Amino acid sequence: MNNLPDKTVERLSQYRRSLNNQLAKGKTHIFSHEIANLLHITPVQVRRDIMLIGYSGTLRKGYDIQDLVNLIGQIIDTDNGQNIAVIGMGNLGKAFIHYLYEKRTKLKIVAAFDVNPDKINKSYADVYCYHMDQLEEIIAKESIKIGIITTPPEAASELADRLRDAGLKGILNYTPKPLSEREGVYLEEYDMITSLEKVAYFVKNK
Hints:
Shape: globular
Structural class: alpha/beta
CATH topology of the largest domain: Rossmann fold
Radius of gyration: 19 Å
Order of helices and strands: HEHHEHEHEEEHEHEEH
């Protein structure tokens, strides 16, 4: 399962969240068209993704929700979880920390970094904020593999280089400045303005 397409992995995460919601409602089995309706995609896409991970349901009952959730977990998660650092403790950085703290997933934010003296040497939802000068030291000490950049955009490129050199294998860039690929690092970028403009376009044309 090391070579699943990016979009498939993204949808698997979405499937798992939706399926867990169905489990919480007492539902035990589900059909592809029901999953499709939850995520506003086609049943064909759902079936392709689930076939790609080697799972199949039955014509009479559909997919066993708990089995499918467990399988997606085996594909996406690691046994011991993965440690994350947030770089930039503005409102967005704090929101990430509180969100993951409440979710209790196997993705754990273990350190935060900033240069603002009002933010460093403080804890946010049990996550300690260090000065940026300690970045490499703490990444090594805490075995951090993923970094979330929420700094002002002008700092993003230099930070991405520092994170790569410190041994990180994944970067989530939440600044509006696009980053170039770094060898050996998986890069995911999210531009809130682009997403908002997409929504605005469809609202305009309704």
